[in-house]
Specification:
Protein name: histidine kinase
Main location: membrane
CATH architecture of the domain at 480-633: 2-Layer Sandwich
EC number: 2.7.13.3
Distance between the termini: 56 Å
Pfam families: HAMP, HATPase_c, HisKA
CATH topology of the domain at 480-633: Heat Shock Protein 90
Subcellular location: Membrane
Strand content: 5-15%
Largest sheet: 5 strands, mixed
Structural class: alpha+beta
């Protein structure tokens, strides 16, 4: 309950205001939150046991299963590369990786925290390790034979080159001998030389062929390719041996025969390259068998690992299901409480906070903004029986006070001009008394024509006094909120007429510049006249103590309207005060010399016109205010 602090008569009473209503809503929401917390505590207490078991048992097992599965997959991924290596360096690198992964798997299986069923995989890992040793042996023999065969091929290519180099001069000699024997008519000898040439050339060609076939044999990958290369190599070796036999009695062919026999040695199926190739193929076949065995062992290991991982995952899944069952009831209860809380929040937010508070606050804010801008006709939303109703009544009172304060400011200005107004009225009254006295004398003397002339003068003076009083009454009355086209020059003249006496009494000079073609502006004449009076009165105050006392009033027309500039030759506005000159109750005058409302009221009036007022310039030589008014359509 909140205390009703309104200024109504009668005893104080308590009421169910905004604070009490929001407090009740807060208590209701807090009650729902406490209920949700209680439900959560009861349901999650059961859940905590399952979560502890999952964290302490199932999660380590799942992590172990993940590592175990990865270790098995790592071994399986490198198995094919191990047996398919083409070079010793490639094999050594693959074998190193394979051994590291196998050692990691064995270390994982030997972990003390591993399940007994997992540790049963150790013999299988040991079998893979033993098979790896046999693969090492077979691969080592295979690479040794392959390297030896490549060395044989390299050597044979050098032998082939030397054979061709040795055979070339022998061929040239045979050709020379054939030509010489032919010229000497020894055809039989020439025929013998011809046969020797054919045998030498055949040896060279068969040696080249045998060398190429040996190279082809070394690079053969299948048994069919090896058999085909061996068949051609045997035929070539037989032909080479037969041709070498025909060169046995020729001493010059000794080197050629030695080189050719070296090629024949490498072509020997029992001791040469074909024998090494057969051995290399046997080791490759054995390596393939070991690879199959290794693949079988790795596959079996993967299956066992997969079975263990599935078992661990099933155990974790069962624990998760128990945890889900523990959550389900709490979730349903929390959902029900959440729905109730949302419904309550919607009711409070939409039905009360939005409709009863925010909308009214927005209306009050709009009204306060309009009141601060000087709009006297802005509607204030009706009240009720809560704090916002008090605020609405306070705004109403504030608007009344503001309007009264503005009116008081105008009346104060009239009060300050009272002496001048009395002077304006006393002069015509003195003249009237003089004319009445003179008229009485003229009538007594029978000069009625001259007496009528005095009466006409009296009528003119009374008309002048009536106009002056009408102007003062118009300035003092409350203004109209409706804007209309206004003659700016006429308003300026009327405002200055109220301050003529101050110029005379204070010895100030008025510099007035009003163009004849000045456009009309949108304003309310009484309030615009009040702005001009305030600005000119401030200018007179600013030059009161100055040696040069000049007040300048200038109007300038433009395409958008007109601007009124009021300047003085005062001391200027201090830099620290320039931003505060339009604030209410701000004044630099002595205490009792002013309320500090003139410029503030003028600012709000001009803003209400949709126009602008600002300090145009200020300094030691004086200050100028500019009022920019919109033109009448």
């Amino acid at each position: 309950m909140t205390y009703d602090g309104s200024r109504r008569k009668g005893p104080r009473r308590w009421r169910f205001g905004i604070g009490a209503r929001l407090g009740a809503a807060f208590v209701a929401i807090v009650g729902l939150a406490v209920g949700a917390s209680l439900v959560g505590w009861l349901s999650y207490r059961e859940l905590s046991g399952e979560l502890s078991r999952i964290a302490e048992v199932q999660m380590p097992q799942l992590a172990f299963a993940s590592r175990l599965s990865k270790a098995g997959a790592d071994i399986g991924s490198v198995t094919a590369a191990l047996t398919g290596a083409e070079t010793r360096a490639e094999y050594d690198e693959t074998r190193r990786v394979y051994a590291e992964r196998l050692a990691a798997l064995q270390a994982l299986l030997e972990d003390n925290e591993a399940e007994p069923s997992v540790q049963k995989l150790l013999p299988l890992a040991a079998s893979i390790n033993g098979n790896l040793a046999r693969i090492d042996l077979a691969a080592g023999k295979r690479f040794t034979l392959a390297e030896a065969m490549r060395a044989d091929v390299d050597e044979l290519r050098w032998v082939q080159a030397d054979l061709i180099e040795e055979a070339d001069p022998l061929v040239d000699d045979i050709r020379f001998n054939i030509e010489a024997e032919t010229r000497n008519g020894r055809s039989a000898a020439a025929l013998g030389e011809q046969r020797r040439s054919e045998a030498l050339l055949t040896v060279v060609s068969q040696a080249n062929l045998a060398t190429g076939l040996i190279a082809r044999l070394v690079s053969s990958a299948t048994a069919e390719e090896v058999q085909e290369a061996n068949a051609f190599l045997g035929d070539s070796a037989d032909e080479l041996a037969a041709r070498l036999a025909t060169l046995e009695g020729w001493p010059d062919s000794l080197t050629v025969r030695q080189l050719a026999r070296r090629i024949l040695q490498q072509s020997d199926p029992a001791t040469g390259t074909p024998n090494r190739k057969r051995s290399e193929m046997r080791e490759a076949e054995r390596l393939g068998e070991l690879a199959k065995e290794n693949g079988r062992l790795v596959a079996a290991l993967g299956q066992r690992i997969e079975a263990e991982v599935v078992a661990i995952e099933a155990s974790a899944g069962a624990a998760a299901q128990r945890a889900a069952a523990a959550i389900d009831l709490g979730r349903k209860l929390l959902a029900a409480i959440a729905v109730l809380a949302v419904a309550l929040a919607v009711v409070i937010g939409v039905c009360y906070v939005h409709r009863s508070l925010l909308v009214r606050i927005d209306q009050l804010a709009h009204a306060a903004t309009a009141i601060s801008a000087g709009n006297p006709a802005v509607p204030i939303p009706p009240g009720g029986n809560d704090e916002l109703a008090d605020l609405a009544r306070a705004l109403t009172l504030f608007r009344q006070t503001r309007d009264e304060l503005v009116q008081s400011a105008k009346l104060a200005a009239l009060g300050q001009m009272a002496a001048g107004i009395g002077h304006e009225l006393n002069q015509p009254l003195a003249a009237i008394r003089a004319h009445i006295h003179s008229g009485s004398t003229l009538i007594s003397r029978g000069n009625s024509e001259q007496a009528l002339n005095n009466l006409e003068k009296i009528r003119g003076l009374t008309s002048r006094m009536a106009g002056q009083i009408s102007h003062i009454r118009r300035f003092a009355r409350r203004p109209d909120a409706k804007l209309q086209p206004v003659d700016l020059a006429a308003v300026v003249h009327e405002a200055l007429s109220l301050l003529d006496h101050r110029f005379e009494e204070e010895g100030a000079t008025l510099a007035l510049v009003l163009p004849p073609d000045l456009p009309h502006v949108m304003a309310e004449p009484v309030r615009l006249e009040q702005v001009v009076v305030n600005l000119v009165a401030n200018a007179l105050d600013a030059v009161a103590e100055r040696p040069e006392r000049v007040v300048t009033v200038t109007a300038v027309g433009s395409g958008e309207g007109a601007s009124l500039i009021v300047g003085d030759t005062g001391a200027g506005i201090a830099a620290g005060n320039r931003d505060a000159v339009f604030d209410p109750f701000f004044t630099t005058k002595p205490v009792g010399a002013g309320l500090g409302l003139g410029l503030s009221i003028s600012y709000n009036i001009i803003k209400d016109f949709g126009a602008d007022i600002a300090v145009m310039e200020t300094g030691p030589r004086g200050t100028s205010f500019i009022v920019s008014l919109k033109g009448a359509a």
